[in-house]
Design brief:
6-stranded mixed beta sheet, homodimer, 139 residues, 29% helix, 3 helices, 42% strand, alpha+beta, Nuclear Transport Factor 2, Chain: A
């Protein structure tokens, strides 16, 4: 059980490193390639099936110049062969035109397979942003 | 397997009927009362634990006069003891002041228990709304 928690935290961490690195090959390894896997990017419609999910990452990576995503409040629940990892995503992103800050709430689901935990769902939704001024330390 | 799919569709349907009916007692029966169950309402932070989740429904019901939620594109996946039901929520809501239309993408998770499938996650996020004019049938 403790092993499952560690494994799931590790997979979640690897997912955000792949995202930050704009690394499609790492996504290939992290995700299950089933036709029913799902992805909801913040404020977007659901994407179903690995080929479509992969294409969405490819498009995001193609239009992103620089991305930092720091997961906080990471919460792991093991439900038999399914691992639910919930977290807040603290996002700083730059594309060609500008830089944006955002916070999203994520539910990440992983399925236990002979090859280890594989991602089967990423659902992220916009969260009310609480920005802290670096000078005053207050909101 | 077919039984699981039918049971999960039924639970998902019951969840939306409870929501439309602003029926907290029905939510009590549908949801698992574990301390780790989670709920993300559209555009909001995550709520963790049944008592907090229940309170959030209570607050929504107290400030809602009238609510219709029609789930479409319902997609059921059974992963051992976990049922993932994804759908689009087509929402019409009225509070004291006005009426709003919205579409949300939902991931609903249910856990298999001796008492049947119980809800353990509701994650809903705002979706781009495509409103169709009833006169022209076009967007």
């Amino acid at each position: 059980m403790a092993e499952d928690h560690t494994g799931l935290r590790d997979m979640n961490e690897r997912f955000y490193r792949a995202l930050e690195s704009l690394d499609l090959e790492a996504m290939d390894v992290l995700w299950s390639h089933e036709r029913w896997v799902r992805c909801v990017h913040p404020g977007s419609d659901a994407i179903v099936g690995w080929q479509e999910v992969r294409r969405s990452w490819q498009e995001i990576f193609a239009t992103t110049r620089w991305l930092r995503v720091t997961p906080t409040a990471v919460d792991v629940t093991v439900l038999g062969g399914v691992g639910m990892v919930a977290c807040s995503e603290n996002i700083t992103a730059a594309n060609e035109d500008d830089v944006g800050l955002a916070v999203a709430q994520a539910t990440n689901l992983f399925q236990r397979t002979p090859a280890g935990w594989l991602m089967v769902l990423h659902h992220a939704s916009p969260s009310p942003v609480q920005l802290t001024s670096p000078e005053t330390g207050s909101a």
